[in-house]
Every structure is written in C-alpha cells, then in structure tokens.
Write a structure and sequence with these properties.
The complex is a heterodimer. By secondary structure, chain A is an all-alpha fold. Chain A contains seven helices and no strands. In chain A, helix 3 runs antiparallel to helix 4 and helix 5 runs antiparallel to helix 7. Chain A starts with a helix and ends with a helix. The mean pLDDT of chain A is 85. By secondary structure, chain B is of the alpha+beta class. Chain B folds into two domains: 79 residues; 157 residues, Rod shape-determining protein MreC, domain 1 (Thrombin, subunit H). The longest helix of chain B is centred in the N-terminal third of the chain and has 79 residues. The chains are: A mainly alpha, B alpha+beta. Chains A and B meet through helix 1, helix 3 and helix 4 of A and helix 1 and helix 2 of B.
C-alpha cells in the first residue's frame, strides 16, 4: 500500500513538473514520466517496472498525446528493459547509467515515431529527430543528477550503519 | 526454472503491450469514448498550465526584483561609502590641509624676511626621557646639518643642534636646564644669559644688573655674542623681574616666544645670506 502511494505521489509529481516545464519552455524539455519509469524499474525490478511504465505512459497519453496507449506501450517496454539491463550487467557507474537512459530514450522516441507514423502518417524522421533535442540531453542530465544524489545518500546511510 | 521465469516475464509484458495496442486502436477508432476522460485531463492540464505560466511569471518577477534590489543595494552601499569618505575628508583632511596651508604660508613669509640661510626641518619626535628638553628633527648630516646649529621657527628661537646623525638630528630646546643662551633685552640693550628651567612656560634670565630698568613684556632677543646664534632672534618676553637691593643681579623670568607644545616645522640657521 505504501509502495502504491509513493508511486502515485511520484506520478503526480512527474505530471506537475511536466506541465510546469512544458508551460515554461513551450516544448518538452525533460521527460519526467520516462525518468519515473526508469528509476522505478531500476530499483524495483521488472514487474513493477512494467506496471509503472504502463501507468506513467497512460497518464502521459491522457494529458499530452492524441492517442491513448502508445506511450503506455513504449514505457512498459522501457520498464522491462531497464530492470533487465540492471540485472544482466551489474553496472553501477554513472556513465553507464546515463548511456542506458540515452539508449532507452532513443528507443522511446523510435517507438512513438513508428506508432504516430502508423496511425496518423506523420513523418517518421521528423517526429523522431524533433523529440531528441533538447529533451534527450536534459533527461539524461536530470537522470545523472538523481543517480548521483541516490548514490551519495546510499553511501552516507551505509557509513552511518 | 529459467524458462518459466522468462515465460512469465514474456507473458506479463506481452499482456500489457497488447492492452496498450488495443487501447491505441480503440482510441483511434472511437475517440469519443475517451472524450470525457480527456476533457477531465485537459481541464486538469489547463489548471497546471495556468499554474505553470503564473509560477514562471512570479519566478521571473522575483528574479528580476532580486537582481534589481541587489543592484540598488550595491549602488547604495557605494554611494554611502563615497559619502562617508567625503564627509571624512571634509571634516578632517580639508581642514587639516587648510591649517597646514596657513602654517606653511607663515613659514614662507618667515623664510623670506629672515636674513639667514635656512634649512627647513620637521619634528620627528619628542624625547621620551625629557619631554620638554630634547626633540628629533628629520634633517641630518646628509642635509648639511652640523652640531651647534641654531633652530628657530616663525615664533622665535627653539634651541640648538646637539647631536647629528646621517638623516636626523637631536635638538636641545632652550627650556632645557642645560641650555644657556646669550640674550639681550631689546629695549634696554642689557645683556644676560637665558637658562632653561624645564618649565615650557618660563626660563630664567641671569646676570641682568639690578639697576637695569626692565618692564614686563619687554622682548628678549639673542645677543649674537656666543656665535651660536646670530643676533636679533626673538627668544621670549619678560614675565617678571624681581629686584633685591642686596643682590647685584635681578631675578628675572622670561616667557619663551615659542610654544613648545606645538612644534611642527622648524628651520636650521645655516649661515648668513
């Protein structure tokens, strides 16, 4: 139950931040939903990752997308992949993490571009490329910062013990 | 076991992916079904957008105001500092400059009318041992100062050089007990010797005969007989003169012309012009 509340709180936070930042810059600067999914699946495993991805994607679809389900599709996939990568690689480095976030972001953009092309015949290349800058860099940056903070907090709690 | 695990993962994820696809297809073909949901979403979205716009405006205003306030504060501090400097200068420096200017003007006048070659000097320090006995000046051997040179200021005789160093010299004041100066009462032309008492207010004048008719405030000048000081330099004014018929000499007190508590610029008497 506590977990659900935390997830809902994070989802709500992502929603507010997404609205605020989109309102400020008139375009998507940082994908807060994607960040939520990435970290949730990174720390909570594949099952929760897929669930988190589904609901985050659904929220993003309702508020920001013309079609319901395509972000949910993409984020569910990302939730699974992120937890799988963590389990398979055992990597804890910042560079590797940012690289993974970048790759997953590209995958997300790729999937969205394909679905938009499939449903609305919107040019694939345009959709794909326009979603990259500056969102890719900013999202990777925010993820890197959160990763560092989390690492520091973990280290300090270990040293306290 | 691994296969079961893999299968469960695959089934779980695929189920969600299929649900997503079905949702996408359904919302594409029946957008009206999701209209209410979207309307609610858009309503919430419009609130957030409004909040976002307002917060941005507020943040921008706040940042602008803060920057402006910082600028104003900095400017005000600078102005305050400048004002304080000006006040300080006006209160201290300018007044001091004016006084120095007046003093130097007097010195210049004195230098012009004195028929001797003068070397200007400044008081470096009063001797800590005898405050009103010895002073140090900022001229020495390098400047041509020699032992025995007379030291004067516009008011009159100050003393004589007793020790010379490379860059400074020691001056014994006429109020020092060891000081003896050959003097003459300007009006009556009586000759005597002025001796210090270590009291900056009064010196003693010896060897003036009882029959000499002196008056209070008579000017006492150097006699020029001792060759240390040229004649005619004002030394002081007669403060009191006591006559005793049993003595040959009078007991006379002379008030020095120089204010020894305010010595600043001095002149060394080098030679005749």
């Amino acid at each position: 139950m506590k977990k659900i509340f935390i997830y809902l709180f994070l989802l709500f936070l992502a929603l507010i931040l997404q609205f605020i930042f989109t309102g400020w810059y008139q375009k998507e600067m940082v994908d807060f939903f994607l960040i939520t999914v990435i970290f949730w699946s990174y720390f909570r495993g594949w099952k929760e990752g897929v669930l988190a991805g589904f609901f985050c994607g659904l929220a993003k679809d309702i508020f920001f997308f013309p079609l319901i389900g395509i972000n949910a599709f993409s984020f569910s996939l990302i939730g699974l992949l992120m937890s799988e990568i963590k389990v398979k690689t055992y990597q804890q480095s910042l560079v590797f993490f940012i690289l993974m976030v970048g790759i997953l972001f590209l995958l997300n953009s790729f999937t969205l571009a394909i679905w938009l092309f499939f449903f609305y015949r919107i040019t694939f290349v345009h959709t794909f490329i326009s979603s990259l800058y500056p969102s890719l860099i900013c999202t990777c940056g925010v993820c890197g910062a959160i990763f560092l903070i989390e690492e520091k907090l973990t280290k300090s709690s270990i040293s306290k013990l | 076991m691994i296969r079961i695990n893999l299968n469960s993962k695959l089934i779980f994820t695929t189920t969600f992916l299929i649900i997503c696809l079905l949702l996408a297809i359904f919302s594409y073909y029946n957008p009206a079904q999701f209209l209410k949901l979207r309307e609610k979403g858009y309503f919430l979205g419009s609130i957030f957008h409004y909040m976002s716009f307002n917060s941005k405006q507020a943040l921008t205003d706040f940042l602008e105001n803060t920057t402006q306030a910082k600028k104003i504060k900095k400017e005000s501090e600078l102005l305050k500092n400048e004002l304080n400097q000006l006040i300080f200068r006006e209160k201290n420096h300018y007044q001091e400059l004016e006084i120095t200017n007046q003093r130097l003007q007097k010195l210049l006048n004195f230098k012009e009318v004195t028929p001797y070659e003068l070397i200007s000097a400044k008081v470096l320090a009063y001797s800590p041992e005898g405050f009103f006995q010895v002073i140090y000046i900022d001229r020495g051997k390098k400047d041509g100062v020699i032992q025995g040179m007379g030291v004067v200021n516009p008011q009159g005789l100050v003393g004589k050089v007793v020790e010379v160093y490379l860059n400074e010299a020691k001056v014994m004041l006429i109020i020092d007990k060891r000081s003896n100066v050959g003097v003459r009462v300007q009006k009556t032309r009586d000759i005597g010797i002025l001796q210090g008492t270590e009291n900056p207010e009064a010196c003693e004048l010896h060897y003036i005969l009882t029959k000499a008719e002196l008056e209070i405030k008579d000017t006492v000048t150097t006699s020029g007989l001792g060759e240390t000081f040229p004649p005619g330099i004002i030394v002081g004014y007669i403060l009191s003169a006591e006559k005793n018929p049993n003595y040959i000499f009078q007991q006379i007190k002379v008030e020095p012309a120089v204010n020894f508590g305010k010595l600043e610029e001095l002149f060394l008497l080098a030679q005749k012009k």
